[in-house]
């Protein structure tokens, strides 16, 4: 196998396989020439009709684009499609700039959030994705244990499968920490634990009184109400301390991947495989990482490793689908929601069939529009800027990233030869 280039990518040695690659042509803006460069902002857009079907006949004139509420001029507009024969009925304006580009997938396993039974689900789905859904021109990588497996992206499926096989749950993972909430004295949620850790004495009193009222025998064994309240505080502080450490590693991994991929031109897809994570005091940092990823052209999709979830059963079971994972103590979905919303991706959850979950990601990344514009405000001031893409016609719905951080992109390293 011949490798065209070797790139240093945020500590990775990134090798990319050879193969044909065609770049989309840039359509000149009305009344002037198109100005390319790192000041260009590209927005990937999924546009569907009333029935939820991809709209294949959209023109730039059908859309309005705003940055921080100010209308922007669309200078580039084209369709990217990886589905054979899918462009026969696409408008001429879109096909003039259409290109079939190599897709880049990074599977980011959030080991600190994944329980053993979740890993059984997601690893099987990831393996099926690599075997059956990764195209011959696609490249992928497995980010596991704090780094890219073998330090590179590759189209070698056997190497990707080997990377998936190395994934293991963290010794102190978040599902294990949440188990303590179910034991006497019970704590309602990680939000309650965070409040207690921050000194909410009235909540400690209420939970202690409730525990001793509901189970006076356990209360007596524990040493009475005062000791129960002390135990509630200890459990809460321990959970929050450990959860913050796990979240810190998750954020570091996300930032490493986003920074590395920003060096590669075009759209990049990160499949974030997680059960969610503690975000009560990290929302700002997470939103910044998502905005930086969006600036670098990375879209994040999240797959919930728990499969089908509900608020009743406390007993997960990877074999029996009718027994689902409880979310009664768990409020961690906010993290994946921020990542997907801000970058224009999707949250995939409540699915036991992980092959189908990965299939939804593949379908969403197979056909999309690319909208390019040069902001009216060219100052790269490092601030967050809100993006809105709207369809003029009510029959269309647009999903796209919601903003980006106004910073210059790092030097771009193309993945193809002449």
> Which word captures the global form?
globular
Structural class: alpha/beta
Mean pLDDT: 83
The CATH topology of the largest domain corresponds to: Rossmann fold
Task: Supply the CATH architecture of the largest domain.
Answer: 3-Layer(aba) Sandwich
**How many separate structural domains?**
2
**Widest β-sheet, arrangement of strands:** 9-8-7-10-11-14
Number of helices: 11
| Strands, total number | 18
Radius of gyration in whole Å, from Cα?
24 Å
N to C succession of SSEs: EEEEEEHEHEEHHHHHHEHEEEHEHEEEE
What is the end-to-end distance? 18 Å
In the CATH scheme, the class of the largest domain would be Alpha Beta
Strand % is: 15-25%
Largest sheet: 6 strands, mixed
């Amino acid at each position: 196998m011949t490798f065209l280039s070797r790139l240093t990518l945020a500590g990775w040695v990134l090798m990319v396989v050879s193969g044909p690659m065609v770049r989309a042509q840039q359509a000149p803006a009305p009344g002037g020439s198109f100005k390319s460069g790192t000041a260009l902002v590209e927005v990937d857009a999924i546009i569907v009709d009333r029935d939820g079907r991809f709209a294949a006949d959209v023109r730039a004139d059908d859309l309005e684009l705003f940055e921080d509420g100010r209308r922007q001029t669309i200078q580039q507009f084209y369709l990217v499609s990886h589905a054979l024969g899918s462009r026969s009925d696409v408008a001429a304006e879109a096909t003039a700039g259409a290109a079939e580009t190599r897709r880049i997938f990074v599977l980011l396993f959030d080991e600190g959030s994944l329980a053993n039974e979740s890993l059984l689900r997601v690893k099987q789905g990831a393996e099926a994705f690599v075997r059956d859904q990764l195209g011959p021109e696609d490249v992928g990588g497995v980010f596991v244990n704090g780094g890219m497996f073998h330090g590179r992206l590759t189209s070698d499926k056997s190497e990707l499968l080997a990377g998936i096989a190395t994934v293991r749950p963290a010794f102190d993972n978040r599902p294990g920490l949440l188990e303590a909430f179910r034991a006497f004295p019970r704590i309602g949620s990680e939000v309650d634990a965070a409040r207690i850790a921050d000194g909410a004495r009235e909540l400690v009193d209420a939970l202690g009184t409730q525990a001793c009222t509901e189970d006076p025998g356990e209360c007596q064994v524990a040493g009475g109400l005062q000791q129960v309240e002390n135990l509630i505080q200890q459990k809460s502080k321990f959970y929050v301390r450990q959860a913050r450490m796990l979240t810190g590693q998750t954020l570091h991994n996300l930032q490493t991947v986003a920074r590395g991929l920003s060096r590669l031109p075009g759209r990049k897809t990160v499949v974030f495989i997680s059960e969610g994570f503690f975000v009560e005091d990290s929302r700002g940092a997470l939103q910044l990482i998502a905005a930086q990823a969006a600036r670098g052209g990375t879209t994040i999709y999240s797959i919930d490793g728990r499969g089908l979830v509900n608020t009743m059963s406390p007993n997960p079971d990877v074999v029996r689908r009718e027994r689902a994972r409880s979310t009664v103590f768990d409020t961690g979905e906010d993290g994946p929601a921020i990542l997907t919303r801000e970058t224009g991706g999707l949250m995939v959850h409540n699915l036991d069939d992980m092959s189908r979950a990965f299939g939804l990601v593949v379908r969403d990344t197979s056909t999309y529009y690319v909208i390019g514009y040069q902001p009216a405000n060219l100052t790269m001031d490092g601030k967050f800027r809100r993006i809105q893409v709207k369809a003029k016609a009510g029959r269309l719905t647009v999903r796209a990233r919601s903003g980006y951080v106004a910073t210059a992109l790092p030097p771009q390293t193309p993945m193809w030869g002449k």
